Amino acid sequence: MMKIKDILKSQLSEEELEFVPRSFEIIGSREKAVAIVEIPRELEGKKVLIANAIMKLNKNVKSVLRKASGRKGELRLRDFELIAGDENTEVIHKEHGCLFKLDPRKVYFSAREAGERQRIAKQVKAGENVLVMFSGIMPYGIVIAKVQPKVKKVIGIELNQVAHEYAKENVRINKVSHLVIPMLGDVREKWKELKEKFDRIVMPLPFESENFLDIAFKCLKEGGIIHFYSLGEEKKLFENAIRIIEEKAREQRKKIKILEKKKLFPYKPRAHKICIDFSVFEEI
Q: Is there a domain that residue 107 lies in?
């Protein structure tokens, strides 16, 4: 199978070839996709060559975006630089029979989490009420509704107005409006409007999710399950997240039972995105 390095052999030196990215993320479909790549500073002057090589290797890629910042701000978005291709970076991403319309320059979405979305969805039982905090363009809610069409209801709360609009469109496209309800606003405020408690809560934001655990405990039924996402350092992958969960549980006078610990994928040097699945009970 041809790689980027094979295309660039005649255009870069041996030393430069060592810095060529080995992987990149593709969001979209066979018809139109966007590639997201990290360009090392050693190849700053060769970024257009790399982008053109990516598009040559992947005919469906119409735009190549270079990560230009870390995640920042209240919405945890990053800056991107368009280094080649179409200025219009809105795509429809296809995943396990689901369609997600989005612009990666305006909302957060990770194609790498497809397997994790399936893992969570397959645990949902018929009749469950599910809450997805920080629901974005609604990938978790839609996948849950597709995998478990007998779910009672999935409510997703999202702060980003653009993501919320995409969520409404994606719910319509996937024909799950009867099951999935997008809500716009801050979880800290919107949870007060919820009329019932939930069997399961998904917290897919790996930054500052611990600051919302108290709300999750309040919204959860006795014996319900929380899927808590965080970042784990390589040497102590789960310890910090479990410590935080236990501390928050004590503050809320709850007991927890760890059900599963998952290492997902690298998020930054020497750190991975992780998930802790745990059930919650009232203290006796």
A: no
Given a contact cutoff of 8 angstroms between Cβ atoms, the answer to whether 189 and 183 are in contact is no
Place of tokens 């998930």: 275
| pLDDT 10s digits, 133-180 | 999 999 999 999 999 999 999 999 999 999 999 999 999 999 999 999
What pTM value is reported for the model? 0.94
CA dist., res. 132 & res. 75, Å (int):
16
Dihedral angle sign, alpha carbons of residues 135, 139, 140, 143: positive
Neighbours of 171 (CB within 10 A): 23
Tokens linked to 247: 């501390």
Residue 174 to residues 38, 178, 242, Cα–Cα distance (Å): 32, 11, 35
* β-pairing verdict for 198-203 and 129-133: parallel
Owning domain of residue 13: 4-89
- Provide the token pair at 74: 């209240």
Which pair of structure tokens corresponds to residue 243?
């410590």
Residue showing tokens 């296809």: 94
Predicted confidence (pLDDT) per residue in 88-107, tens digit: 999 999 999 999 999 999 99
Distance CA 224, CA 226 (A): 7
Whether residue 12 is found in the same domain as residue 60: yes
> Do residues 248 and 149 share a domain?
yes
Place of tokens 């994928």: 265
The answer on 202 and 73 residing in a single domain is no
227 CB-side CA count, 13 A? 25
